[in-house]
Amino acid sequence: MKRIVLALLLAVPLSAQSLDERVSREINGLLETYKTLHTMPELSTQEVKTSAFLASHLRDHGYEVTERVGKYADPNATCYGVVAVMKNGAGPTLLVRTDMDALPVTESTGLEYASQNAGVMHACGHDVHMTTLLGSAKILADLKSQWKGTLILIGQPAEEVVKGAEGMLNDRLYERFGKPDFAIALHDWAALESGKMGYRAGEFMAATDSVNLTIRGLGGHGAAPQTTKDPVVLAAETILALQTIVSRERPPLKPAVVTVGKIEGGTKRNIIPDEVKLYLTVRTFDPAVRQQTLDSIQRIPRGLAIAAGVPDDRAPVYEHVDHESVAATYNDPALTSRVAAAMTRELGKERVVEVDPAMVSEDFGLFGLNRTIPTALLVVGAADPAKLAAGTQPGLHSSRFSPADPALTLKTGIRALVSGVLDVLKR
Ligand SMILES: [Zn+2]
Ligand SMILES: [Zn+2]
């Protein structure tokens, strides 16, 4: 009998067994934490309660915590960054980030723990990331004898408006708390089933650029168009012409997206307005394709305005919104494969898969200081397998999105993250 037990114990790696058990022991409390965070979403740059919640739990787990780390361009805005440090002897420094902000979305999941903040929702799963970080933080504090070095856990605000990472770095993050040798983060993924982890070496998420175009004309009476230069018609032509940038100008094997997501113009049906505003989001991976695409977005509206006879002093106005734009997210191949291997040992080969690059964007890559610090953004599956197969799985940012199986999603994320950290900081 004893021999059978011993054989069974040897069949399962001891470390895997204990980590799984540790997470299982914590999971009920973590589910409560997750549900609490889900009910109290806060918009980007307004994460006052969320950051305090995260900070107090990290303090409870024995970390040295500093709050309100970060500086935005607006000196009157408070940046709610949280930094939690645990020093554990000589060794590498590893930064692990969670984001904290939610979205201006009215939740329609019907969950009993749905948002209690009207019009705001954790529709991108940052509540999952925070809970995963908290669960991992506790286990890593308990397992101090198994790693060495310094762990810096970051609660980043304002990810959805790509301002938080930059804000924290602007506040001398690395001078104050130490410059990491590696940085990792985790994001939930609606294209991957709950219970799985995904990784992608190299270019993973696109660069994003926000562009505002003001199409100007000369307004007048709707019944006398010949006395005007109609910016509504010109805006319509512009929108269609912009669609030829990707289809006709960029190389087919280098992805790009040009989306006009919002149009604003006019007051009344019989008035031709003076101007129409277009709000664009542009996504690319390749830096050259990024610049060429932005150049085209300047050139095409100008040419169309000339063709329409709009005077030079009413030419379209192009505005690149710098603070809503960010470079592509690049996963360091060596760090990514190292962490993927650790996750695979913990979860098994069938539960750790390579995923496709995505046109969504992130500002986590900024923590890598132009690729001088290896960074890796991993993804944790959050989809319902049946809905995924049927094509009905709500995506991130949907009012109907929530992880299919929160307990499984959290357990998987924590086991993956802890095993990755233990590998990078191994004794
Ligand atoms: Zn998001
Ligand atoms: Zn997100």
**Helical percent range?**
25-40%
Tell me the domain tally: 2
- Tell me about the largest β-sheet: 8 strands, mixed
Hetero ligands: zinc ion
Strand content: 25-35%
Distance between termini? 35 Å
CATH class of the largest domain: Alpha Beta
| Number of H- or I-type helical stretches | 11
The chain-level mean pLDDT equals 95
Q: Give the CATH topology of the largest domain.
A: Aminopeptidase
* Strand order in the largest sheet: 1-2-4-3-5-16-6-15
Give the full name of the CATH homologous superfamily of the largest domain.
Zn peptidases
Q: How do the SSEs run, as a string of H and E?
A: HHHEEEHEHHEEEEEHEEEHEEHEEHH
Structural class determined from secondary elements:
alpha/beta
Tally of strands: 16
Description:
By secondary structure, this protein is of the alpha/beta class. The chain folds into 2 domains: 10-205 and 328-424, Zn peptidases (Aminopeptidase), CATH 3.40.630.10; 207-325, Alpha-Beta Plaits (2-Layer Sandwich), CATH 3.30.70. The protein is built from 11 helices and 16 strands. The strands form 4 sheets. The chain has an 8-stranded mixed beta sheet. Strands 10-12-8-13 form a 4-stranded antiparallel beta sheet, with helices on one face. Helix 4 packs across helix 11. The chain is elongated, with a radius of gyration of 24 Å. The two termini are 35 Å apart. The structure holds zinc ion (2 copies). The site of one zinc ion (ZN) has 5 residues, from loops. One zinc ion is lined by residues 99, 124, 126, 159, 187.
